[in-house]
Structure formats: structure tokens, C-alpha cells
Amino acid sequence: DQQVKQNSPSLSVQEGRISILNCDYTNSMFDYFLWYKKYPAEGPTFLISISSIKDKNEDGRFTVFLNKSAKHLSLHIVPSQPGDSAVYFCAASAGNQGGKLIFGQGTELSVKP
Amino acid sequence: KAGVTQTPRYLIKTRGQQVTLSCSPISGHRSVSWYQQTPGQGLQFLFEYFSETQRNKGNFPGRFSGRQFSNSRSEMNVSTLELGDSALYLCASAQRGRGASYEQYFGPGTRLTVT
Predict the structure, then answer these.
(1) pLDDT tens across A8-43, in order?
(2) Residue B72: which residues within 8 A CB-CB, separation 6 or more?
(3) Nearest-CB residue to A41 (from B105, B107, B111)
(4) Is A34 in CB contact (< 8 Å) with chain B?
């Protein structure tokens, strides 16, 4: 039972354009969502998060949108840079289990110069 | 602030042996969570420790255990190693507690190979 799903294993974008990474979840108890960036053989790096009481959160080039009714969130990167090329994971947690993150399978982003 | 550190970074063990991995959280962080990453199963939650107590546990057999010390450092132990235990083991720390954020910050991981 995969509670967090990233249906696109890979995404290719031109430098300077927008990258949109998508994530769906099934558990309505999730109330906090996070995005991580990961390079091979390294630990994930925290990018941005959003609480379920919000529908948008911005941090520099990164914006996360949350649509609770659709149980969907997305990460927008504008403008995309070659250094953004990595695997992106979305993760979710439920309030009473905040230390337990459920991860999606990841989307590999490739930003081409 | 120094980040999360994990030791050792690489480890090779034989089936049937046991292994202990160590994690030092970011200073001031009281929560430590452990995750296993494999190509087939992705990133899976093992357990979380907060103030020396296990607060959450994932769906792993009892061969996987952990503990946390009073300085928040944590260790993870795997007994009777199996080939399928070969993975990248990641530790993450978080502040937790009232008013704290939920963000977890990961260490570089320990790459365990079981032969």
C-alpha cells in the first residue's frame, strides 16, 4: 500500500524553464508535507515543506502547492538550473507520528543547458 | 552548526553477522529517525527515537533495533544479517517538541553490503 506516490520516474527540462514535480497521497491523516533533493550515495537534502493548513509555500526558486481535496502536491522550480538535476522525493507525515516520514518513489529531474 | 554525522560510511559484513551503525544529530535536535533505502523499496522508515524513547516504529523485523543516548546520539543494530539487508541506512534528526518544525535533516548515510 503506497501512501505517497510520485508517478513520474523522470522529468527533463530546459535550463531557465519551469520544472513541475508532482506527488499524490492517499492517507487523509497526513498533515505535513516535505520535498527533498537527493544525489546518489548521499543523504536527502531538505528543500521546502508545507503544513496542511496552507495551500502554498515559497522559498526562493522553490514553491510547493497543496491541494487537499485532490490529495495532491506539486513542487515548482523557477527558473530551473543544471545544478537542480537530482532525484526529488516528496514525503508526508501525520501529526501523531511526526517523526515518521512516508516517502514517494522519487522523480529524477534532468535540467539540460 | 555541524550537520548530521553517521559512522561508518561504508561497511561490508557477512551473512549471519551483526552490525551497529552510529548517528550524531544536529546540536539541539532531540529526535533521531532511521531509514533504509534500497533500489526496490525506496526510502522506508525504520524507527524514531526522542528523549531516549522509541516513539514510532516501521514494519521491519525484530532483528532491527535501535537506541538513543542522553546526548541524543543514536545507534542502530541489525542482528543475523541477511543479503537483503544490503542498503543505504540513513539517519535524520529533527528538533521536535512544542512549536518546533517537523523538518528532518539527513546524514550522508552508511552503505552496508552483506555478502
Answers:
(1) 999 999 999 999 999 999 999 999 999 999 998 789
(2) B25, B29, B30, B32, B93
(3) B111
(4) yes
